[in-house]
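JOB MANIFEST
job_type = single_chain_structure
chain_count = 1
residues = 88
[input]
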Amino acid sequence: MTVHPDGKKGVNILKRRYDAIKNFILETLKDQEEITYQELNKLAVKELKNTFDGKITWYLVSIKLDLEARKIIERIPKTSPHKLRLKN
């Protein structure tokens, strides 16, 4: 079950799907340090389209929010479009 940074109800995601998207996000942020959500989404679709059995964009949003709520990643303040990075 995911959590939401604004306290909204989370969603239930299969562990294998959660882990695939989570690992993709974390590895991408390790490589790039910071990235816009749009760039992350484009990369995810490109990299995962042949191996992931779900709607990549939907899972990416849900798991990104979960990682923000768990303080693993963060939105960089005052960036537009918003950028993401690993939380220190």
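[summary]
Strands lie at 34-36, 73-75, 83-86.
The two ends are 24 Å apart (CA to CA).
exit_status = 0
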